[in-house]
Amino acid sequence: MKQKNGFSGQIGFVFAAAGSAVGVGNLWRFPYLAAKDGGGLFLIIYLVLVLTVGFTLLTTDIAIGRKTGKSAIYAYEAMRKKWKFLGVLTFLVPILIMTYYAVIGGWILKYITIYLLGSGEQAVDSNCFSNFISAPSSVWYSIAFMLLTSFIVYNGVEKGIERVSKFIMPVLLLMVVGIAVFSLTLKTTLEDGTVRTGLQGLAVYLTPDLSGITLERFLQIALDAMSQLFFSLSVSMGIMITYGSYVKKDVDLNKSVSQIELMDTGVAFLAGVMIIPAVFVFSGLEGMSAGPGLMFVSLPKVFFCMGFAGRMIGILFFTLAAFAALTSCISVLESITANCMELFHSERKKTTGILSVVYLIVTAVIALGYSVFYVEVKLPNGSTGQLLDIMDYISNSFLMPFIALLSSIFIGWVMKPAWIAEEMELNGGKFRRKKLYNVMIRYIMPVVMTILFLQSTGLLSQIIK
How many domains does the chain have? Predict the structure, then answer.
């Protein structure tokens, strides 16, 4: 069944796709990894991977979507009936991600209210975040975020997703740039008279740290960068296939892919400029090791040190994070909706309505996984997780690398790269990175994705040992 609606043009598609790619991970995970993995060294490796692996995965998904005009399940079936199972696997990823993305959005909404209703001092308490998520009342914030996502998807592609993305993405970019510039102007004087400045923090962020570098360390940094890139671009989860199916044939896909790469990487880079100098000024190098707690634990302390300006920055930052979470959450629900519309031959409003009820219930269960439904499970990668972590592990660490591996084999050796190139060259367009794509999809991607899959599942360390 051909999709009856779609994006109005290239700008609408690029903003929607970039909105999907630019998620919460760009705002806290990227800066944390950059600080942990040698600053500029991580940035260089990440940029190289964006222009090779990221380009290959993004091009593949979007071209498949537009050429078949279908969402993941039927797209793969239309290409080769025996490969429909790959479409089903791909469809499972957004189904699992949707169980917890609105929960994270709810956490961000809570922090917006903290800064709107007070000075932000409440957020400085190290136990603020853990106390909040372990309280059953936290579920209402996640439900509110899920309802907002459902409302936008309910209104369709052009009137819902595209309209919201065209507003949110420019505002998000302006906010990132504004906060980044402000961070560079910060400075503080320590008790011993030493002055720390935002520009010094920028130098920490940009300068490649090669101290203690070994082959094993370099490979770990590369795998961290690959993991971040992989999940950041919304590839191998059917989202870009679905969005690609909405793109008109006169849109230049080559230009669109480049613009999405640039926007997603630009926001991630600027997030580092926004966060690392500020954390360095008020917390020093020790503050860089906050890890996943950077957004909800370390940054509120930084904002509080800024006084009244910090409250304003706190409101702006968490509003920015909410925008990033919302555009990504929309794309995940849209991917599920599009597949269900094709599977059950149902119309959008009815499908979205049913899915919304299902995910409101599931969101509530996952949000209560830190209180009412608390569990602790040992995961294959060595970590211990609750319900949210389990869903995240299955979708991100297991399924996505596995799907990318199978997809690279399918496109590279069964369909052949020329099948993708034909769509990229439609209407006389020039596939500028055609040779690179051919080498990547056939030879490099299968190897890289096998390594990433083994590393994510904890098998790589066992093999090395």
Answer: 1
